[in-house]
Design goal:
Length: 430
Amino acid sequence: MAQPITIARVSSNFERELLLRPFGFKGGYMSEIWQTAVMLESDSGLRGIGLGSQGVLWSDAGVFAAHAESGGNALMYAVTEFAVQLVRGRSFTDPIELLESIRGEVYTYARSVTQHAALRETFVLNALVAVDNAAWLLYAAEHGITEFDALIPPAYRAALAHRHEQIASIPLMAYGVPVEEITAAVAAGYFFLKIKLGQPGTQAKMLELDKARLSAIHAAIGGARTPYSATGRLPYYFDANGRYESKDTLLRLLDHAKVIGAFDQIALIEEPFPEELETDISDLPVRIAADESAHTDKDALARMQMGYRAMALKPIAKTLSMTLKIARLAHERGVPCFCADLTVNPILVEWNKAVAARLAPFPGLGLGLVETNGHQNYRDWERLRSYLPLPAAVWTRATKGVFQLDADYYARSGGLFLPSAHYEAMFPPH
């Protein structure tokens, strides 16, 4: 059995990063994203610096709506700092065990500090990403691990056994993105686009707006071709963020898709229903993916049992530890997975890619999938990219909608175990 690692010194910090324009979904709009950093140092003097990107609106829209934007972010950061202080002096043998040992106490604190009795667990997991990330890097340092494959505990390796040479880069098309920008993305080589549905308004208004949006998009790109899909046509990926209150309303949208000839191109619809709608959906004629409703492995299993046929994994939003648990459950049940974004910074994109590169190919495609939309939304994306340990590496940028993952990428594990001078400078040696 591995020797326990004792956390002797801790610290945390954050930076505010502005967005290019208000980013709207779930009926709200974000103007900035707080980037958190956590340092955990063992009693042997080794340390890990982990990062997080806060998504208050995504993780709990109720908390976001109840506060000024900066207030909601401050609350999530307070939860991160509480967790950082909680692990000071603790010993752990692996990061998954560490996360489980604190999750309940952190949730109790988060519910208190937000004064939100029905706080969604995803809010807490989002706050814990930087802590968990730091724990994994400290664990790697203590055990001399410099390869991502070696970092994955044996019990979870079957779920991440592939090594794709290419993974699709999925851009995000929010409500306000003009159709012209979507057309330009396809012309640039992107072929698997995440398109936000579930627009603001009543259910009737939402449905009409979504039908019009689908019609406009299909008219613009429906005839485009790609070598990456089994049919040669573009697969459509829609995300409704829980806005469809009934299966009947979604079926009316699908009927419209059939009328305009877009139905056969729908690869998946993510989170169309409110989390509270716990009903069997196995009769729906499209693949439905779970994302924020699958807070934990227990929730993910419940969604699979309801008929959800894909899982959006988010090591960058729900912790790597929880993601490994969900990935294993999905693998055991033959449910395909892909990695979704939270508009995270470039270093966290590499953590997402590390998982996506090892998942089984998504049905109908011969490669893995990773969403990354930071380049579309951060005002200073190129400055954030400069914080990468290897910013010039070819695999850090998508080419014609695809990340090329060569032998160098796997040999260096995407730079995950190399220090970032920018974030190291936040925690000078004591």
